[in-house]
Amino acid sequence: MLSTKVTCNSHGQDSSYFLGWEEYEKNPYDEVKNPKGIIQMGLAENQLSFDLLESWLENHPQPSAFKNQKNQSIFKELALFQDYHGLPAFKNALVKFMSEIRGNTVTFDANNLVLTAGATSANETLMFCLANPGDAFLLPTPYYPGFDRDLKWRTGAEIVPIHCSSINGFKITKSALEDAYKQAEKQKLKVKGVLVTNPSNPLGTSLTLHELDLLVNFISSKNIHLISDEIYSGTVFRSPSFISIMEVLKNKNLMNSEISKRVHIVYSLSKDLGLPGFRIGAIYSNDARVVSAATKMSSFGLVSSQTQYLLSEILSDYNFTKSYLSENRQRLKERHEKLVKGLKTSGITCLDSNSGLFCWVDMRHLLSSNTFEGEMELWKKIVYEVGLNISPGSSCHCSEPGWFRVCFANMSEQTLDVAMQRIRSFVDSLAKKNMSRHQQLMNRNSRRTKSLPKWVFELSFHQRDVSADER
């Protein structure tokens, strides 16, 4: 009596990424109420700069009270029907904010912007606009686990991985792009485009100019689309600086070309401003047909007028946004360094990164076997025994076992200290167990050696003398 969409198992909810969340929700850590609970390190949320936003709201009470500069109520105006094109004031403020994040090296046209209820909605809407059911998009690995849900579940689109390796820091290569395209052809899938996150979730690295050039050349040669998900663009806290795909198009004099019409940007205020609950996402496209279709589709996931009005006032305050971006980056840098240093004291290293709300952590040396089974075994110990919810690399489709995404910006500094203490105790206990096993093995070998006949030792020494003479 139900639809196949309801009864099928294609949502991706059975991923270890989501399962870790479920375990956390059963037993959430609280410093006072539940100090032995699970600490949430699987949530890419930015809680480091809430005080800056709260301070702005205290100093500017009119917008949150839905009053204009003349202190007149505009509640009725905002509460009544608004079409799905969005408030012009907010769209203009948002495109200026996007330019500011990119150092004003590029500008954005508000007419090319479509508002959506978060980046999740933006990515799915682009899938509906660019791909038919059964068509494929190529995604470099490792990639955000939620894409298996966001891009595929309702659209019927497919994902083909572009396998990247730790040998070069998981950077995109020309051969990896070509291999993924050929793999899609073998599966009889029509490739409609490439989707990248820049900066990367889960790597915490921004794409290099070389990688971006490769992508533009690749989509040009294959006549396909490129979606650049740039929701972490404002989190780049140290060099190399962030390079938007729009900058590449501009520098290549492609801004008004046919190629530019096949390049689309996804943006959101969830990460840079730490406002995921506000559900502010956007699609930016130079293709008028995509903008028109996406605008119509946005009626199924509108952003409230009240939210748009409040944020238009915040984003229009240039002095505040400039100060916020600078301070937020500094806080992310300090918190990132604290996590990296804390893990290093336990003998755990991270991929060298410059952005994001997480680190890509190398725990390969802690695996019982260099397999994904070994990775899951370690992950379960960390969740259930250590009490930390982190995301295993396999949930991000990483082709190498032993990597984990660990978030650092969704908790207090004190909670991060507790997490590092737990990790240190866990690694120490593993080392003691390994030492104990090694000692048992040595003792066993010693007992076996003592039980051997005397002639075995004499033969062994005789063979060593012969070998020495031959050398």
Automatic annotation (TrEMBL):
PROSITE patterns associated with the record: AA_TRANSFER_CLASS_1 (PS00105)
EC number(s) per entry: 4.4.1.14
Domain of life: Eukaryota
Pathways per UniProt: Alkene biosynthesis; ethylene biosynthesis via S-adenosyl-L-methionine; ethylene from S-adenosyl-L-methionine: step 1/2
Gene Ontology MF terms in the entry: 1-aminocyclopropane-1-carboxylate synthase activity; pyridoxal phosphate binding; transaminase activity
Keywords for the protein's UniProt record, in alphabetical order: Ethylene biosynthesis, Fruit ripening, Lyase, Pyridoxal phosphate, S-adenosyl-L-methionine
Pfam family, one: Aminotran_1_2
Cofactor: pyridoxal 5'-phosphate
Keyword S-adenosyl-L-methionine listed: yes
Protein name as annotated: 1-aminocyclopropane-1-carboxylate synthase
Residue ranges constituting the Aminotransferase class I/classII large domain according to the UniProt record: 39-423
